[in-house]
Amino acid sequence: MTMNNTWKQLIEEEKAKTYFNDMMKIIDQSRQNTTVYPAEDNVFSAFELCPFEDIKVVVIGQDPYHQPNQAMGLSFSVMPETPLPKSLINIFKELEDDLGVKNTNGDLSHWAKQGVFLINNVLTVEESTPLSHRNIGWETFTDRMMKELNEKQEFLIFVLWGKEAQKKTAMIDHRHKILCAPHPSPLSSYRGFFGSKPFSTINKILKDKKMPEIDWRTDV
Q1: CA atoms of 142 and 123, how far apart (whole Å)
Q2: Which ranges of the chain have pLDDT less than 70?
């Protein structure tokens, strides 16, 4: 899979920095000692599937799923044929209630190819150990990418589900639209995620901006 030149340049700039090299050493060591998700080839899938200039919507997740055959480099997405994690079940429930779209396939690549940038705050994780790669450098990396999107794009819709994602609000200026709601996890989904209607809201904003709406189906 090839990567858009803008993303490629930005990532190469970060790879040249000390923090990134230190982080890679930690991740390489983790891969030697345990299982790390996603697979090395999929760590930057969000960047490969969604060219910088084509992005319309940014959905920020926390860190990858930490069980086998789940993480694929897109926030909230799982590999085809994989049972749906609880957060994704709740996302699909809200989608069906909102727009009547019923999905059974948890691979969100179809969304990404339409300009929905599905990025986690932290891009790797050790098996069965959520947040195990927090504070090793990924936050610095993803903050840089968010700042670049904020500064270089004329208009984006940022979807911030949960308190961790909402910390990014400070780096998003008034030109863009921010949609906030509780995280879709079982612990918080009933505190306002259900009924927030993010999918119809996104499409209405895009339509008002004369931009193509998102086809939220995954079974295509």
Answers
A1: 9
A2: 1
